[in-house]
Amino acid sequence: MPAILYSFxxxxxxxxxxxxxxxxxxxxxxxxxxxxxxxxxxLNLGGRSTVPQLLADGQRYPESLDIIFWAIKHTKHADVSxxxxxxxxxxxxxxxxxxxxxxxxxxxxxxxxKYADRHPEQVQSYYREKGERFLKRLEQRxxxxxxxxxxKMTLADIAVFPxxxxxxxxxxxxxxxxxxxxxKCWLNSFVESDCFQTVMTKFPAWEESQNVVCFP
Length: 216
Ligand SMILES: N[C@@H](CCC(=O)N[C@@H](CS)C(=O)NCC(=O)O)C(=O)O
What we know:
This protein is α+β, with helices and mostly antiparallel strands and about 220 residues long. It folds into 2 domains: about 5-75 and about 195-215, 3-Layer(aba) Sandwich (Glutaredoxin); about 80-195, Glutathione S-transferase Yfyf (Class Pi), Chain A, domain 2, CATH 1.20.1050. It has helices spanning about 10-25, 40-45, 65-75, 80-85, 90-115, 125-140, 155-170, 170-175, 180-190, 195-200, and strands at about 5, 30, 55, 60, 215. Glutathione (GSH) binds near residues 8, 51 and 52.
C-alpha cells in the first residue's frame, strides 16, 4: 500500500509537498482534509494535527520538509532528486537558507497581510511592505537566473513559490501592478505548469469508508 498523505488543497505547505511528489512521480494515498473538521484518523495520531502529514513504513512525518526529504530519498528518479537537492553541502545550505527565510521571516508577515483584520494594530499595507522585503530579495536573485539557485529548479523554488502565490492572491490587482517582473515570470512558470494543474486537482474531503485515492 502506498504511504498516506493528509493534505489540504490550498495549504502552501501541502502544495510544496504535492509539487515535489508529482515531480518525483512518487505515489501516495491522498486524504483531503477539511481543517475545520479534521478526520478522527488524523486526530487520533495524537500530538499535532496540522497538514501535510505523511504516514509511511510505520513512521510519521509531521512537517512538510520531512515529507519532501522522504520523497527525495524514496523516488526512483535519482537524477531529478539530485537536481532538486544537490549533494553539494554549500548548495544545500543556500537552499535551506531560502526556505528558512520564507518559513520563519516571510510567512508571519504573509499571515498578517492576509488576515490584517485580525491584526488591527497596523494597517494592511504595513504588513504588505514587510512582506515585500522578501519579494525584493527574490526579485534581485531572479534577475540573474531563472531559478533561485541558478538555471535549474531546486527545492528552494518549490518550497517558496506557494507562499508567494498566496501573497499575490491577497490583492491580485496590487500584485499585478507591482514592479516585480522577474518574480512574476518565475511564479507563472510554476502556476502555469502541467505539474501545478495536477497538484491543484480537487478531491472531496476524505472519509474513512471511501475507496483509496492516489496522488499523483
Ligand atoms: N510547519 C508545518 C506547518 C503546517 C501548517 O501550519 N499547516 C496548516 C494549514 S496551511 C494547518 O494544518 N493548520 C491547521 C492547524 O494548525 O490545526 C509544515 O511545514 O508542515
